[in-house]
Amino acid sequence: MRILLSNDDGVHSPGLIALFEGLKGLGELEVVAPDRDHSGASNALTLNRPLTVEEHPNGFRSVDGTPTDCVHLAVNGLFSEPFDRVVSGINTHANLGDDIIYSGTVAAATEGRHLGLPAIAVSLVNDGHFHYETAARVIRMLLENERPLALGPRSILNVNVPDVPWEELAGIRVTRLGHRERAEGAVPMTCPRGKERYWIGAAGVGGDAGPGTDFNAIREGYVSVTPVHIDMTRHEALSRLRDWVDTLEDSPEGRG
Asked: What is the rounded CA–CA span in Å between residue 57 and residue 59?
């Protein structure tokens, strides 16, 4: 098995290093990650300039771009041998609920899926204990399962792991994404030159966080594994939308 590892916290992130160490011996590992923190980059691609790739003494490669850039370059140009899958992480904080639309960690995995590779995004729900080795062991266990998993096209696994030793995990739950409440307001500040600046406010708390959600699984000490389908069409609304469009008096179909 040939595995591409990436992340959004940067090539020197302790989570990425722990993931690499935890997957050693499972297959051939290559690491291509951003040269700095790109948390919140989502699925951005850099199209307005060329990208620079640097190889580090430990064999990791960094890119002066986004997580999506890293996976795109790795799969489509940096290596002659193809990959079998992509693993993105270990993110230093949770990626739960609909907040994942901002996540560079999830974006690196979805880019792998867009390029035809099975992909996993993994995050540590960090409580300050930094048990990255627990999250790495969870991913290794998932990858070692000999039974093939067919999620279908455009789908990835989003995995969140409690920040506890392996022995304290309650188990693994298959979950759906919860929903966060509205984010907190922007935080104003004044820079040393007297100009007003703003920090983006903190993410909202889990509004839909009941049984079956990723929030609930984590709260009860379980690993959360969520299948995420990258198809933004709201299929159940199509018929209602067609009926609504048909009521438009000046639609193109009624002209002439």
From this structure: 5
